[in-house]
Specification:
The structure is a homodimer of 397-residue chains. With 397 residues, chain A is an alpha/beta fold. The model of chain A has no long low-confidence stretch (mean pLDDT 95). The first copy, chain A, is globular and about 60 Å long. Chain A has 13 helices and twelve strands. Chain A has a seven-stranded mixed sheet with strand order 2-8-7-6-5-3-4, with helices on both faces. A three-stranded antiparallel sheet of chain A has the order 9-12-11. A two-stranded parallel sheet of chain A has the order 1-10. Chain A folds into two domains: 148 residues, Alpha-Beta Complex (Aspartate Aminotransferase, domain 1), CATH 3.90.1150.10; 236 residues, Type I PLP-dependent aspartate aminotransferase-like (Major domain) (Aspartate Aminotransferase, domain 2, 3-Layer(aba) Sandwich), CATH 3.40.640.10. Chains A and B meet through helix 1, helix 3, helix 5, helix 6 and helix 9 of A and helix 1, helix 3, helix 5, helix 6 and helix 9 of B.
Chain lengths: 397, 397
């Protein structure tokens, strides 16, 4: 029996920072401690009744491959959805993907070859690191800071990262993991830089409706870079259908869509039944998202109402999505988060956060930070923040 | 507006040879000609009633992410399935994937880095070419021939392709696109070569039950290379659930499973509902596969009963799966297949095949060959072969 090493990319792919502490959470539960899970972006809302109704009404006898580009009804539903946002995508611009995740993979492969570089703002959605390893693309991070609400730095800070290997800029707006919603002026700067330097822009807009103050601007509004733009989308968060795995890649660049179609043909098809069941939702998205956004607003306020009373905790007001990154008055957030699960409890309860270090590509950043996901009801969130407060007092002793 | 080139890998990824002639088929249909589709591996069987029953019985209110490694019930169902085949996979050896397709992608990324080589036998399942382009891995083809029923050549023919870059050997057994079922002695030679040269073996066994004479041997039977082995599997063909997208990667190599889990975490999860619905099938697979294999046997016989009467057509007896590659007495099968769709008809009917050239990586091979998929009932298959016979007579005039 030989022990052959796995690939370098397999070795370099990071384990999920969100699920890293799961064994510690398991230990807590085994001791009978209740754990509030604020580590993962898995909301607690029910699936829309219309989705479940469609599912139960599935009447086909055969469960055949969908077309690789997506069921025609589903592609059309995405088109209708975009048009209701005044985003001018037509059916031929859209490839249905197995979740937004697959759209990211297709986008990276379509714009970059091994060794090519993509600029990304950190803290970042960590799975970009995985997809970059998988495709041997180099992510070049530009750090954003809590004190600025994680907004984008000035142009020279961005342009100094551009090399002959740079193929594009990745942006996630509203941002996971920071909850930042970028201003029109920021996004316009990105568009202008992309135009000036011949770069693609990969714009991950899966949280489009999840904004608390101003609406989220799609990169598609900057018509002068439309053909350089790849949009990543998903129904997962928008309709609380994380498990349904339906997303899309959309672009006005015909070569990008052609590439995505070839990649889509390689994996044959996305799930037929879950596509069919999701069609009605995209055709009338406001019906679902409006109340959900209101609920997230309440939750954000609940989190903040307690967070601001904890001495030494630094945070900012998230403008969208359902995350917040907070800096804690401690040395090492990962150590603290593990301690929360393995050694601490208050009245039989504790809380699980994602240490934010895993959301940075640059080493040694975010060491004192945690990501809080607003995925429980307000009362539980408040209680979670109270637990954090009590825990910090005890931890510092 | 800049016109930025897409990546080289996007350019190099082949379009699907199976779907290549779809525009020609469309033209035929627009003229009112009925097309028998024997080009694609999409069987016409209904989904198992138990799957549809499970689907309609889905009673969860929330459609949450499944665990990245798969729902525990689903992983357990795969384990039960393997044990009933006397294949000793345990739960910790299995990662549920979104179809067999994703298992292939994970396997390539786990064993090879850009520029690394994998040996594969051609004619091959064409999507391997796509996944190799996506991951920048080089596939090194070893040609097999119709006159030998596409069986594997002798060891020196294989070993001369091994270089310092070779990381593994890919085998698909029973084979798509040839229907060849490899003998124990052939597979043992592959195992011995892998052991001698420190190579992984990626064994795609999605057609495991689909055999007409002898049972299919899993590479797992060669216990001396178990830790070098990655098994690719899928429910798509086995249960006529192509659209459900449930597969798995299984391996006794812990580093491989660890890598696959990290890749799985990157894309979060496989579809929850379709996983849940498929559980009962894997726990009692024989109930479904036995009658289906009998039907394929009849279909194969139907195809051959007419094929053998066509002058100049060369073929062999496929031993499994539901494909056959035939050599036609013409110069260019792709040209002929297009002609069949665009210019020919017999009593308002014609037939669509996949030209086999796309199943070879080596240029200029398979030019006279087509792949026939037994995906229609025997009567339609016989009629399709009659159409082929009449068409060849007319074409040669």
């Amino acid at each position: 029996m030989n022990h052959i090493p796995v690939s370098q990319r397999a070795k370099n792919t990071p384990a999920s920072p969100i699920r890293k502490l799961t064994p510690s959470a398991k230990k807590a539960k085994e001791k009978g401690v209740r754990v509030y899970h604020l580590n993962i972006g898995q909301p607690d809302f029910p699936a829309p009744p219309e989705f479940l109704k469609q599912l139960k009404g599935f009447s086909q006898k055969e469960v055949t491959y969908a077309p690789s580009e997506g069921l025609s009804e589903m592609v059309d539903a995405w088109k209708t959805y975009y048009h209701s946002h005044a985003i001018p995508f037509e059916k031929e611009d859209i490839i249905v993907t197995t979740g937004g995740s697959e759209a990211i993979l297709f986008a990276l492969m379509a714009v970059a070859d091994p060794g090519d570089e993509l600029i990304i703002f950190e803290p970042l959605y960590t799975n970009y690191l995985t997809f970059a390893q998988e495709t041997s693309v180099k992510l070049v991070p530009i750090t954003t800071y809590l004190k600025n609400g994680f907004h984008i730095p000035n142009n020279p800070e961005i342009e100094k990262k551009i090399t002959s290997k740079t193929k594009g800029i990745i942006i996630c707006n509203p941002s996971n993991p920071t909850g930042t919603v970028y201003k029109r002026s920021e996004l316009k700067r990105i568009a202008e830089i992309a135009e000036k330097h011949n770069l693609f822009v990969i714009s991950d807009e899966v949280y489009r409706e999840f904004v608390f103050k101003v609406r989220s601007i799609s990169m598609m509004e900057f018509s002068f870079i439309r053909e350089q733009l790849v949009i990543i989308d998903s129904i997962s968060k928008r309709f609380n259908l994380c498990g349904a795995r339906v997303g899309c890649l959309a672009s006005k660049n015909k070569k990008i869509v052609e590439a995505a179609l070839k990649f889509a043909q390689g994996r044959l098809a996305s799930p037929t039944i879950e596509q069919l069941s999701a069609v009605p939702l995209l055709k009338n998205y406001r019906k679902y998202t409006k109340s959900v956004v209101e609920e997230y607003r309440k939750r954000k306020n609940a989190v903040i109402s307690v967070l601001k009373t904890i001495p030494g905790v630094k945070f900012y007001l998230p403008e969208g999505a359902f995350y917040l990154i907070a800096e804690l008055p401690i040395r090492d957030a990962e150590y603290f988060c593990r301690w929360l699960l393995e050694e601490f409890q208050d009245q039989g309860e504790t809380v699980m956060f994602a240490p934010a270090q895993g959301f940075y590509q640059t080493p040694q950043l975010g060491i004192k930070e945690i990501r809080i996901a607003f995925v429980l009801e307000s009362k539980k969130l408040k209680r979670s923040m109270e637990i954090l407060k009590i825990a910090l007092e005890e931890y510092k002793k």
